[in-house]
Amino acid sequence: MKILRTGLSAAVAIAAITSFTGCKPKNAASVVSADAAQKAYVAPGKYDEFYDFVSGGFSGQLSVYGLPSGRLLRVIPVFSADPQDGYGYSEETKPMLNTSHGQIPWDDLHHVEASQTNGEIDGRWVFANGNNTPRIARIDLTTYNTAEILELPNSAGNHSSPFITENTEYVVAGTRFSVPTDNMNGDVPIDSYKKNFRGTISFVSVDKNNGNMKIAFQLLIPGINLDLSHAGKGPSHGWFFFSCYNTEQAHTLLEVNASQHDKDFVLAINWKKAEEYLQQGKGIKQAVKYAHNVYDEKTHTAASNFETEVTVLDTRSLPGIAYFMPCPKSPHGCDVDPTGEYIVGSGKLAALIPVFSFHKMIDAINNKKYNGYYDSIPVLKYEDVLYGEVKKPGLGPLHTEFDGKGNAYTSFFISSEIVKWNIKDLKVVDRAPTYYSIGHLSIPGGDTRKPNAKYVIAYNKITKDRYLPTGPELAQSAQLYDISGDKMQLILDFPTIGEPHYGQAIEASLIKDKSKKFYDIMQNENPYATKGESNAKVVRNGNRVDVYITAIRSHLVPDNIEGVKMGDEVYFHVTNQEQDWDIPHGFAIKAASTAELLIMPGETCTLKWEPDRVGIFPFYCTDFCSALHQEMSGYIRISPKGSNVPLAFGTGDTAPGGKDTTTVQ
Ligand code: RUQ
Ligand code: CUA
């Protein structure tokens, strides 16, 4: 969405209205009414009514807030290594960030989508996209950990993702950047874009029982930019809709060159038809390489495997999969209402919102009423598929969510507001300013068949003066509006971590009781687990030293280790012996080049350490776990290479060397 900040200013159509200060809403403070505080207030010790899973954008993480309080409950590392809990640093979690390009400890997480059954949020998983090095992640809603990451081949700029079908049959991933496919020689001139660059859409299937993802097939599409998408529902189940820009197929100065056409497209994909072709063997198997990383709950360890094949269906030679609906102008959001009949395209540069009718689209397809072809794909006529237009709704429409009572809520970046309009008569019924420049918005369940329309949350791109200033860099900001009445009512601002793109709010009652409290240590199948202090040990194998440590309030066993030498690779396998909620132990050692470990009760985590000098190195628990937490520490002695200090370890009476016999001089 960064494009919008600079990109729109050059677009001729709206040059006059882009100055930010020009559209800053007035009387920002006074619009908050007196009972706002009460509505957002959740008393100390009381629970929020919703979990809000909010993307972290360029932080690569997912934050979890409570609503209506806006309290930050947790940050879940997904595509970014996180020193706070060792994700991406511990030996067990490093494989999660593996890709065909090697270990990549960062990505740009834009969208979150909750798993669905019968078009309703089922509270099992949330999915998130990695935009930069294309990946999809699945987060488990019992552990709130990233359980799986799947890399996407033939792909660049995975933006229109991870939107989901109504029974979580598929999570999709469409390419924002067209590129030569992986099996081609990619060493081609950039100005051969039209000939060599292609877009793809991956349909990733999700196993009903364990959530495991697999690329079922990929669709090859013309070299345009896919922006966002949503699945059909109800009558339109079996279809997927994508907004497309850059139908000009420009490859330079897109802000001007990709804004030439008066209309771009909404791409309608019939994925049931694609499945038929797949079954008929019409797919082409392509040799590719991509990582599939899965975290195993029992071993507390991730494994990374490389897949080597995808099946590709070419939409240009297989009729009936893809149709274009003309859509004014450079559409961004592409949203389907709860009934599944209305598809809303949001042209960033359009002065209206087009609402398409699914059944009119089907009629036009059945009657083969095409207005020609775009790169072999039939183009339908705008008038034939249009239900109607919302006239003069605001400036710079981006995204639309629904309340399930016949209303739609659209975010307007340039005029910085949320506009509520009625789907039947397309009339604007309310508008509320946002502070400032809203991107996405979300209503709990607002993109499903069954919204819970209590609130709409605005995810804003610009924060400016909303909070105490913190230098040039400010946190981004979300805002909460009560929409239970006819008028939207602003009740809360809260700062967010990273750039909040999309969010999915889930009723707490659906998931809170499934939240895991600790791991059963008897079920811990990590090969380096230590169950009970008496099993703690240090084992040398050549220059590899495995330290099996136990942690329990308030000591580590062993806490004195000798006989480790320069050139050794030391693996500290720390097992938390606690079997109680909220008693993690941490582990850090001086000069470690990774991060700490944060080990949950019953779990084992491993820190790899290569000593860089001779001496004594302390290690300790980093999480204040008891009154004697500061005592939870130990020493390792590093001797020169070739030294004959024997390997020894222990604690208390069994510590190497026994009692201290030296005297203070
Ligand atoms: S985007 S602000 Cu990356 Cu979803 Cu529209
Ligand atoms: Cu364990 Cu502090």
Q: If you had to describe this structure to a student in words, what would you say it looks like?
A:
This protein is mostly beta strands. It has 8 helices and 45 strands. A 10-stranded mixed β-sheet has the order 6-7-8-9-17-18-13-12-11-10, covered by helices on one side. Strand 7 (about 120-130) and strand 8 (about 135-140) form a beta hairpin. It is globular. The termini are far apart. Dinuclear copper ion binds near residues 621, 624 and 629. (dicuprio-$l^{3}-sulfanyl)-sulfanyl-copper binds near residues 1, 398, 399, 439 and 502.
Key structural traits:
6-stranded mixed β-sheet; binds dinuclear copper ion; disordered N terminus; 10-stranded mixed β-sheet; binds (dicuprio-$l^{3}-sulfanyl)-sulfanyl-copper; 45 strands; 665 residues; single chain; mainly beta
Query: Going across the major beta sheet, what is the strand order?
Result: 6-7-8-9-17-18-13-12-11-10
Shape: globular
* Total of DSSP H or I helical runs spanning 4+ residues: 8
Distance between the termini: 67 Å
Judged by helices, strands and strand pairing, the structural class is mainly beta
Radius of gyration: 27 Å
Outline of the structure:
The protein contains eight helices and 45 strands. It has 665 residues and is mainly beta.
